[in-house]
Amino acid sequence: MIKTLLKSLREYKKPSIIVPILMAGEALMEIIIPFLMTFIVGELQDVAEGVKGNVDIGTIVLYAVLMIVCALLALYFGALGGKLAAEASCGLAHNLREDMYNNLQTFSFANIDNYSTSSLITRITTDVTNVQNAYQMSIRMLVRAPVLFIASIVMTVVIEPIMAVIFAGAAIVLGIVVAICMFKVVPYFRTMFKKYDTLNAVVQEDLTAIRVVKSYVREDREISKMKAASGEVYKYSVKAERILTIMMPGVMLVMFIVNIIILTVGSNMYVGNFAGSIEPKEIQTLIQYSAQILTGVMMVAMCLNFISLSKGSADRICEVLNERTTLPKPAEPVYEVKDGTVDFENVSFCYTQKKDVTVLENINLHIKSGETVGIIGATGSGKSSLVSLIPRLYDVASGSVKVGGIDVRNYNLDTLRSKVAMVLQKNVLFSGTIAENLRWGDENATDEEIQFAAKQACADEFIQNLPGGYQYDLGQGGVNVSGGQKQRLCIARALLKKPKVIIFDDSTSAVDTKTDAMIRAALRQHAPETTKIIIAQRIASVQDADKIIVLDEGGIDGIGTHEELLKTNEIYREVYESQMQGGGDDNA
Ligand SMILES: Nc1ncnc2c1ncn2[C@@H]1O[C@H](COP(=O)(O)OP(=O)(O)O)[C@@H](O)[C@H]1O
Ligand SMILES: [Mg+2]
Prior knowledge:
single chain; alpha/beta; four-stranded antiparallel β-sheet; binds magnesium ion
């Protein structure tokens, strides 16, 4: 896991290596400063005890200057280390986000089905931030703290071994105190992060569906859902923070107790029973070292805990980074789609998460280039699944799907998808102008080409009536146009690709019958060589097709023209009759 994460370091490897060295330098300076101090205190002590007549100002100035130099160096190392650590960790976060996003773009529909949108958002935002913080802390502390700890212990041993034993004891006690606190805090934090997930999911779902929420007057329920989710985050962060606030005074308490011990034991050693084995100047230095030893212990303990805390986030990031597309690239990709023939040979298909449910079974189907084919079937009969195999949104479980006589798995994916246009059942437009959105079909389309495509999709007229025409801004997700207008824009966008096969997955459901017929007539006239596959609810939409496929529970129930099916296919006849009774058009 760490290897996967560190792969994203790239240009930030160098600072990541320099930071620990700088931090170790800072720690060493912090060790030297108290040591230099002993010389100044010693000088004064000598005068006070009458060993020396006057204070040697020269000596004091020398050590004072040395101390200032060390302090400045410590400042320099610390500041530079801090700056580089920030650069390295922010850089890691930046690269991680980029890598996750890049990998996300290679995901197939099957890959995408494995993640919820909100979980992907949390992974790219909060989880990366957690890892960034843990990484910054690690490169700053994990070398610095042990250096501080070991060097201080060594210096203490040099001055007075007994004190070193006392410090080690105190360090163990402190380590245990911090460990216990962290042991209690970490689970709270873990739960808190999980609750964040829920919170993100609630907010995301509510915001993307805000119009539905309003039309069903569900605002109050959404507010209380949000309140509950936010309340859970509050509950666990308060619990965690409470323990953390107790921890600091606890650490200070241990430090003061150690100070008292140093002073008691030290003064005994100076004037009491063991007189002469220690001097005041050393006691003063030891107090500083004790603080550094204990800080070192605390930092390591906190650091390890933050790392363990971010492990969950790191796992979730790696999951995205390591996810490989379920659509393997062919060894020798084909870069040209010859024509619009489509063949299904013994095709079976199931969705990866529901392997036991066969969505399509043993489909055999041959569509000639330029044909118009209608697909009729109840919801859930597998219509969308069937057509999604043609532009290879999913791969078959067995059998093969061919376009232009070649298995779709042998095409370069971009080539295939640029020649097989699909107007999805749930289609999306992006913020930006109408022209920008239509150019998704063909970046280099001229204004005339755009208008021509729009005309075929019966969209030109309403576009001309919008303020600004083709420069009209659609707003996020294309909210500024009606459902039927949106569908027509999506059809125009697909037509601009000049595809060999165009698939309409219930794409004219929100368009009135007359416009629907006009679009079909325009396609017949202007795109005679393009294979047109039309999934529809209305018999009227497919009636004049070259052949109509009736799907039922993942299998083909009948294929034929309208007249043939009326005679031979019971399902088709039933649908037709029910729509006739309803006035011929159930959707208008
Ligand atoms: N992304 C998906 N993951 C899992 N199952 C799915 C997915 N999409 C559709 N299904 C299931 O596959 C079956 C066929 O669905 P679909 O092809 O969308 O039918 P239709 O378009 O005819 O309404 C349904 O049972 C549906 O629940
Ligand atoms: Mg469908």
